[in-house]
Amino acid sequence: MGTLTELFAPDRIAVIGATAREGSIGRAVTTNLIADYEGEIVPVNPKYDEVLGLSCVADISEADADMAVVVVPPQIALHAVEAAGEAGVQNVVVITAGFGETGGEGASREKQLREIADKYDLNVVGPNSLGIMSTTGGMNATFGPDNALPGGMSFMSQSGAFITAVLDWANDEGVGFKDVVSLGNKAVLDETDFVDHWGDDEETDVVIGYLEGISDGRAFIDAARKATQDTPIVLVKSGRTDAGAQAASSHTGTLAGSEQAYEVGLDQAGVLRAESVQELFDAAQMLANQPLPENKDVAIVTNAGGPGVMSTDAVGDSDLSMASFSQETLDEFSEKLPVEGNIYNPVDIVGDADIDRFTDALDIALADENVGMALVLSCPTAVLNYEELAEATVELREKHQKPVAACFMGGERVNASASILQDAGIPNYFDPSRAIGALDALAEYNDIQSREYDEPTRFDVDKEKAHKILSRVKERGDNRLGVEAMGLLDAYGIPTPQGEIIDDPEDAREVAASIDGPVVMKIVSPDILHKSDIGGVKVGVEDEDVEDAFEDLITRARNYQPDANLLGVQVQEMVDLDTGVETIVGMNRDPQFGPLMMFGLGGIFVEILEDTTFRVAPVAESEAREMTEEIKTAPMLRGARGQEPVDVDGVVETIQRLSQLVTDFPAIMEFDINPLVATPVGPDEDSGVKAVDIRLTVDPESL
Amino acid sequence: MGTLTELFAPDRIAVIGATAREGSIGRAVTTNLIADYEGEIVPVNPKYDEVLGLSCVADISEADADMAVVVVPPQIALHAVEAAGEAGVQNVVVITAGFGETGGEGASREKQLREIADKYDLNVVGPNSLGIMSTTGGMNATFGPDNALPGGMSFMSQSGAFITAVLDWANDEGVGFKDVVSLGNKAVLDETDFVDHWGDDEETDVVIGYLEGISDGRAFIDAARKATQDTPIVLVKSGRTDAGAQAASSHTGTLAGSEQAYEVGLDQAGVLRAESVQELFDAAQMLANQPLPENKDVAIVTNAGGPGVMSTDAVGDSDLSMASFSQETLDEFSEKLPVEGNIYNPVDIVGDADIDRFTDALDIALADENVGMALVLSCPTAVLNYEELAEATVELREKHQKPVAACFMGGERVNASASILQDAGIPNYFDPSRAIGALDALAEYNDIQSREYDEPTRFDVDKEKAHKILSRVKERGDNRLGVEAMGLLDAYGIPTPQGEIIDDPEDAREVAASIDGPVVMKIVSPDILHKSDIGGVKVGVEDEDVEDAFEDLITRARNYQPDANLLGVQVQEMVDLDTGVETIVGMNRDPQFGPLMMFGLGGIFVEILEDTTFRVAPVAESEAREMTEEIKTAPMLRGARGQEPVDVDGVVETIQRLSQLVTDFPAIMEFDINPLVATPVGPDEDSGVKAVDIRLTVDPESL
């Protein structure tokens, strides 16, 4: 698969299946191309010599094209793509439907399409796509009713209808695009490829998308992290809610990854996630057209107090803050504003403000270096001309090179000024909370751009030993492992309490004797999951009672399930919970994003309060540390209420080591370390963490 | 203060200060009245015989008016109002500014205005108001640039500029109003009066408002509960955030009640609270124009899969659910829809759907009794005419009498159809989440309407004993009480551990002996707040050690602060925390809403996790029970993780009794019962709650 530059800027496009038949897709595509495309168009159709005034060839091999759009019926579409590949056409847009989305025959057709693309190293968009557009070359290779206006947004969508709706709206509003791609079934090219491409595309200022699923989460994270160094990405990923996920799966057959995985995966990727169409375009237009702010502090300049308060609430709801003005600024405001006004932020220049007072106030506010951005907020008054205010706003944005949002409130009175603002890339909103939301997106992208992604640490571990332990599941009918897999933790350098699994009472006593203090004894059997319920756990057993306890545990297990596979009894050092905090580290493997690490405090904190945090593995040190910081109970790790802080560094390292384990062994489908007890660091700088119990599920096929 | 009916439907309006001078407020008001007002207008101004073609009188006494609008300068405005009262005019709108909002002289002027209103029993709007409107009589008694279109929304606003902006927008969109009130400084009439009035007004379908503060929270709750039996109320209360509250206070000088109090107070009042202008009007238009749904289940009918998924997410985000269709409905869909479609919800009728298929599908969906409401969702296609779809949508809404929201996506293609929809009270949105949000408001109001507000229980208590205990603060320089006020709890029937405050070691031993098991001993002194920090609390003291412990505690207190006011030592039964849960019940008195009760689990749950819940007192039993149910840790009261459930009924009763205490004694400014230990109900049906410690602050002036 080559670069996608030519896909969006081909010199010669062949339309395979072009026709002049009214109402046909072939006609629509050809007509759309004829409208503005600067290159050459070659209809391909053995039935015609000429289509819509263009001379037509019988076969793609005669077209000498660098891109082909395929609109023939599904039965012959594969032939068309293969012929294009044969003819050396590198870029193919398959508009034809009747592939994976129909299941059955269509699905196998889609598989073949992928094979053909591999064979000829083709860039294939679709199938089941509305087509693609690129406004730089005037290319509209879609069968939709509208062409896009030129602009800096590149837009991909898993819904073709949504593109149609967006373009109709955008053309009306004067909102423009660089490229538009209807992803269709994503048989070959998917969101990751386009993020990769647009990230390097000078003319793309912001990447936006509507996605119902991401094909390869980890690849997407890597591509997006790279792209967002220069180019913001804003996505609606639908299927956020349970109901939505179900609807998405019946719409595109997307195998639903968990929302949890998408949420953290997209965040780790540096993507801004919009929850609605409105949020998507509010953020995208701001990102496409405005400079980035130096800080998060907003100045609000308003001729109306009430809306000023509402806007301040919107700032309070966002990650932005109200700017504190310098003394110089306050002095200037005092000089220029009437006494009834407010020189503090929000700056109230009062209802009788004319254009001069408004311009002065905005100029003063934007000149203050404590101000990162501004909201121009106005209600209609008899003494203020909105068009003049719009022009002043545009000029001052240019002068100060700081982002400015507009909220000229009203209806018809606003229209002319809104056009002036929109032409300068300043969308006008009736609702101040939308304007503030859009500014917030700028600040959020600023944070993303300044992120430094550290590489996951590779610890020195005993991978072979771990492999041996995991392989045990192959030797038995069960894919679940319990305490008998504690050795995995040793192999990966994670501290565990002293202990062994013993199958003889005398040995048990010996082991207990070698451990300081009383011990914990547990039945070890893959067939007995809830050991506590049958009295299969004994706590605080003194050395002299170990043999009796052993016999008793075995009897209980046998009584409970005579044919249970009994691996023995675990004799384990007692971990003092009084000075420690119980934590849980877990992992679930997500179909799209792979291993998803979980961290939280044990017991009610996870079970009732659901105070947990997630990251897609491999997890770098900074990410593991964030996990210990962002749970609500984080203060309990750091010594709340007079307790000594626990060994947070030890927890952070444990999360990373476990992340390495699940990255090394894709066969581990899920696990829980519960509890991972965290205590203060010991007197000899001993690690303060101990993994007391483990449970995991393995896919023996992947070993 | 009489009824407000005449305020909105006067027969004869006097404009005190009417003039024809260009640019004057007097001219603007008179002109606005002349435009459409059906009654008579009498300019009052000694300088003229005629104003704008109307014959002018010199004095209000000659006007024979039932309403007066005052626009004269502040210095003579009070005279004008007094003269109006004298002349028997009951309703006065004071547009004149220069009252409370300017402080100083203005504030005393406002006080006088209130006195005059009292004296003549006047309905006074303002001062510092834009004026009022009522579209039924064509009355526009404001100086704003726009008149309102007729409609079912009655609108009050603490910002006049916001009214101007809203009307400009509303006129452009075709959105209408019944009454509009610019509240101004609310010297006499405030939000509660208008809620009261509009709640009984047949022509008002929904009350909406922009408020920065509520003058009397409890009165507002009572009025709103009554009004919302028939009429929904949707409010933006700004100053929600810390930044916003600060801005609100500098704007209208509103003494900020806590956001916590507003949040629960407005909820208890049955008010729908909008967080933005957009939310306000999205909800209000739906409530004003659509029938209420029978249930919360939405059917989505769409010609585009992607937007269908987005809409489903919006349903997932709301309190609504996706309707499950009956078998009959599914059968009908199967018959009418193509196989590529989806007969399950969201119903995908596919991109080639024409008006007939769309109409059929929507008709079938709305006929299903599992469906409470519908979203009509459409992307532009070549085979569908949006105007026809708009007409079908309106007809089917009428036919089925179920609420319908519209999301016809697009720009110019949508305009004509949007007007058809708007005329029928179905606003069209580009963004499905707004349409779903508006439907959600209907369902939420449904819930409010079916609320039953039970009266707070009046328990039989010893109010006199409580009064005596509280009065002690008067006898000393401090307004804080600690364990020495435990008697308050006895007086109000709240169980406390056995114990006494003792000032002699031998008596202490005697008391300890009368208590089963070891005791807790604590220093009692208003001057030593953090007793634990100086070792002033001893736990598990055996009888024989009581005398030594007593001496030791006294010594510690003396060493810590030689002149501390030492009330003695509390000897208290030890409460077993092992089988119980520590809870906290607290109260803060809010300047607007009065006593705000708080409940939560003690320790880290309040301090770190902030898992608390609030209600404005007096709290009825159902409200107290909700408090125990809505904290996240509620399962811990009800027996999580194998524990026995604690005495929740006892907790509920304690909250109510404490609510009665703070309602009976406005002098109690704040208190904490921490902990209120809740254990399982005892073997003899003993109460499972015990209030172990108390701290309160009293305002001696209010006793």
Task: Describe the protein.
Two copies of one chain form a homodimer. Chain A is of the alpha/beta class. Among the domains of chain A are: 158 residues, Rossmann fold, CATH 3.40.50; 77 residues, Dna Ligase, domain 1 (2-Layer Sandwich), CATH 3.30.1490; 122 residues, ATP-grasp fold, B domain (D-amino Acid Aminotransferase, Chain A, domain 1, 2-Layer Sandwich), CATH 3.30.470.20. Chain A is 38% helix and 21% strand. Chain A contains 24 helices and 30 strands. In chain A, the strands form six sheets. Chain A has a seven-stranded mixed sheet, with helices on both faces. In chain A, strands 20, 25, 26, 27, 28, 29 and 30 form a seven-stranded antiparallel sheet that branches. In chain A, strand 18, helix 14 and strand 19 form a beta-alpha-beta unit. In chain A, helix 14 runs parallel beside helix 15. Chain A is flat and about 95 Å long. The two termini of chain A are 31 Å apart. The interface between A and B is large, with 87 and 87 residues.
